[in-house]
Amino acid sequence: MFISQLLGKHIADVARRGPPSGTSDTVLRLVLDAVGAGAAGAICAGPRAARRSVLPIFGLGDAPIWFCGTGSSVSGAVH
Fold it and tell me: How far is CA 58 from the centre of its chain?
């Protein structure tokens, strides 16, 4: 069986039965971890340089750039 078939079957099963118990708690912890790591690393030179490069490359937009106070395109915000 191809990986795409396995993935499709899993998605169909989850859609039919709902996610396993505890999934919401796991997702919330992962999001909190991502935000915490982003906040902790926001003052480092690499992330600061990346944020400075977003507007010249991707331009202004409505998608917020974390810890920057400005927005860019969706592509720029995830950069």
Answer: 18
